[in-house]
Amino acid sequence: MPIEPRRVRSIAVKEVRHILRDPFTLAMALVLPLMIVAFFGYVMDLDPREIHIMVSDRDNSRASRELAQVFSASGFFRVDRAPDGFPLARILDGEKAKAVLVIERGFGRNVASGVEARVQVLLDGADNSNAGVIMGYLAGVERLASARLTGAEAEPPIRLETRYLFNPELNSRWFIVPGLFAFVIAIMAVLLTALTVAREWETGSMELLLSTPVRPAEIVIGKLAPYLALVSGAIVLVYLMARLVLGVPFRGSHILFIVSCILFLLPCLAQGLLISVTVRQQALAIQLGLVSSLLPSMVLSGFIFPIESMPMFFHFFTVLLPPRWFVGVSRGIFLKNAGLGELALPLGVLALLGIVLVGASIKRFKADLEP
Amino acid sequence: MNRTVRGFIRKELGQAFRDPRMLAMLFVAPIIQILMFGYAVRTDIKNISLGVLAAPDDRMATRLADRAYSSGYFVPVRVSAVNPMGDLEAGRANAVLIAPPGGFSRAFGRGEGKIQVLVDATNSIRARSVEMYLTALGAEVALDSLRLRELPAAGVRFDTRILYNPTMESYIFMVPALAVLILGEILILLTAMAIAREKELGTMEMLLSAPISRWEILAGKTLPFLIMAFINAPLVITAGILWFDVPFRGSLWELGLAAMLFACATASVGTLVSTLARNQQQAMIGSFMFLLMAMMLSGMFFPIENMPESVYWITFLNPFRYFVTLLRNIILKGGDPAVVWPNMAGLAAIAGATAFVAVRRFRQTLN
Questions:
Q1: Together in a domain, B185 and B324
Q2: Whether complex ipTM tops 0.90
């Protein structure tokens, strides 16, 4: 039977009233995305920074002091002397520094006599993101120190001439903010819709709604439409903030971006709705909504942690998750001016996921109505 | 324990345990989550697709490529020699190594060891890793071919020892943090919805008119979820530690105390949200905002040391921050007293202060 636009509209109007009656929810729906963007734009800094290390200098010679100097002059490290008599192991145990440089007695003598001068570096492997960065820096510092102390060849014999495309200054904001759209849209859409139908079941108003001639498809569409508008508003806010405040470039087509956002919004909203239709209980719906949106859209989308680095299973599993596709689309349009040709696959998958999830919610809903 | 509170506990636990779906959500989903995300959250960058444009007889360039592919950091892709930019644009390659005209081997022989690299920098972290990996590999290749000329071995040499996690596995670092997030997520939502639900359904009026004190209502609406957390915490932490073979160096009772304090602090925050909210939707949004801030400002994914100073101080209000520090320190480093006790005190202070405010708020709403 055909869908009656008039009935869809009444359901939508009712849902809009419900949203407007609760200014707290409305405000949060708009404040939350801005809060997230502000955090990732300003607070979180993924660019390399100075790492705190401590030097335990048992040699106390000119050469050992110079070595410590090379570390602090490199710009990668903030160097402090380890307190005298403090057990070395407890520097890392007690989180006082990320690494300890141990210069044993005889270091200066070795340097002077042209023997290999060994220095021990203890790294805090419990914080392995920092440990990896330190390891990278150490190779450079080793060469610098050798050059400075012994006059050995400083220049590495192979020089990379690296050209960074699309983001020449390696600005981490340019990397984070386009991916952020996927994160914000996914969690907002799921959280807002996860309660809608469950609430009606719990308070008993669903029985009333069902006794009217409204059809399941009409209820589902009528319930999705207002949230589509609300999250779209949030997208506009995030976009303005990204462009005007954070200065992220936008190189692609705006029309393509709008179409992509809608294609992404649909499966996300439907995901929440499907949960709501299936469990009919708000406490459970919200747990499911959160579990299926927060961590997956942050961790399994490629937003921060690249999917290529994950074990094989995730290369296949993430195919089912809408955010995984949208992160690439958003970055492509923002930074690379990607067109429909390059984005055909992800956009096609998003459309397919949208159809499947909306269809599933309508079907679930129908199944509920049969006696 | 008081009979009324016992009744509450029986009712709330009964309600949760009656529904097998809720039961699965509470006790099975967390374990699946920690196992799954434990594998997925990797801070190391691997499998970067790298194309190489060099003549097949260019031995140095081929050697560099072979080393790159066998290092595990890079995987080979074919790129177009005419338009390598197109491959980067379409995302088919993350980086392309281009030998100079006339071959890299010959250029290196002349002492001009320059090689061009094009990197897709839309992911700035990966771009940096590409540069770092290739520089290191290039130095190895150069050293190999110079070995004939007998370089002097003198100079400063670092002996690097990585403590606590010598193989630098991401999950050893991430599993404790994920446990915090998963436990906090469940507990905050359960407690936040509890009182809000009674308000929404109108049963709160009934409770208030019954001959029970406000204290009993509040305790009765919080304790059952604390009990669930006390079952859940050992379950999730043990599953993570055993499955991923995370070395456990600390003391169990310190870990238990930390988990208990964390549960109390989180339950207090949830109860506070619940007293503020008028219905479940508000409670959900309130607790979600808290959860998101708590996650971002906890140091579990993003290091706290990198944050601006004003935000750095805010992180001290965050119970998740203390528990992440505690779990990592106790599990991986054996629990240094200089870290354990201040962080425990922080959790206790937050639990106490929030519970106090929640009780006052609850009284006010009733008047």
A1: yes
A2: no
